[in-house]
Amino acid sequence: MQIPVVRNVLEANEKLAQVVRERVRGILTLNLISSPGAGKTTLLERTLTDLSGEFKMAVIEGDLQTDNDARRVAATGVQAVQIDTDGGCHLDSKLVLQAMDHLDMEGLDILFIENVGNLVCPTEFDLGEDAKVGILSVTEGDDKPEKYPLLFNLAKALVLNKVDLLPYVNFDVERAVTFARRLNKDLPVFQVSCTKGEGLKDWYTWLRAQVKLKKAG
Amino acid sequence: MQIPVVRNVLEANEKLAQVVRERVRGILTLNLISSPGAGKTTLLERTLTDLSGEFKMAVIEGDLQTDNDARRVAATGVQAVQIDTDGGCHLDSKLVLQAMDHLDMEGLDILFIENVGNLVCPTEFDLGEDAKVGILSVTEGDDKPEKYPLLFNLAKALVLNKVDLLPYVNFDVERAVTFARRLNKDLPVFQVSCTKGEGLKDWYTWLRAQVKLKKAG
Known about the structure:
Two copies of one chain form a homodimer. Chain A is α/β, with parallel strands linked by helices.
């Protein structure tokens, strides 16, 4: 009984993902996925601040509860809309479309969608994005790409965050990256510390290239 | 269409949770829930090693993929069974019953069930346990009880792990505990470092008391 319904849910989501794709023509749309507390919001705060002179950006924030993250993002001066999933474990395209109705999309270069903190469920739902971006923090352990393979398989970029804590934890960067690239051969990996603001240059270079690709259509 | 089916799934799970409850009479059964990489397996390794002279224990390990954690647990000399959810985001009672068929339950004092690393979905599924135990690591941020309230509401104990990293991260222990206790007034909180083996005494005292309560029936 369960499987056909789950399939219907995924099919309905896929149809609405196509509607999202129509509405974000020319706007680079990134779906940020990670465990709780890996640093998605801090990555956004840095990126929005550092690239505000270059790009017009907006953020859709997904959370089970609270609008804390949307308020953090809005403090950078960038448009932010909160989706409260009311306990739901992932975003879907219907929620994203509802959020887009509250955004001024005119002239946007980048739309960031911060998914619910969850390394499993969000990956299964296409939001009409150009790319899923995985964020893994070194405090979570170097075995995560092996244990939670779907995200590392589907992501088009991996941000390895909290590298400032490497001296204090057991995390073998080479091991994690090797696992991830076994699933996803040419996966770009950016080693950063979002709280310290370190290592973000290559991430920004990647973003610039993606914006250019998207605009070229 | 979706909601009634989800309700059926939860009802079917609840029935099988009753079957689990019958089978663990006199055996303290704990459902360990956390984000990926918060330290569930390391907490188990320490606990199994330190209490092996006192209690007969066993572990059911839930993972999307790999039997890495079951192998880590088995290395302590304790019985371990792996449940591979094949991508599923949480354990359910049916999976737990299947795993129990592979365990020698005779004379057990404690059965630990390590759920899939996920701060959302596992909390919604009763596994027939005596208590859910939440594990939160300080690297995840002190806002997690507020943002993921269900686990912190339902847990009967909270292990606050990785306190050895407090000097290097922005985490206000008081703030996290205040949020958690706003949801769950008398929640016991154990501040530990599982990798360093620090602060575990109170956790063990709590476990001993729970075993005694369970046996008293």
